[in-house]
Amino acid sequence: MTSLMSGRGRFITFEGPEGSGKSTQLRVLGERLRKAGQDVLETQEPGGTAIGVQIRRVLLDTKNRELCPTAELLLMFASRAQNVDQLILPALSAGRTVLSDRFTDSTLVYQGVGRGLGADLVYELDRIACRGLVPDLTLVIDIDTETGLARARRRSAHTEDPETRMEDQDVGFHRRVRDAYRQLAVDEPGRVRMIDGSQTREAVAEQVWQAVTPLLGVT
Question: Given strand 97-101, what is the order of strands in its sheet?
Answer without folding.
Answer: 40-44, 97-101, 10-15, 137-142, 192-196
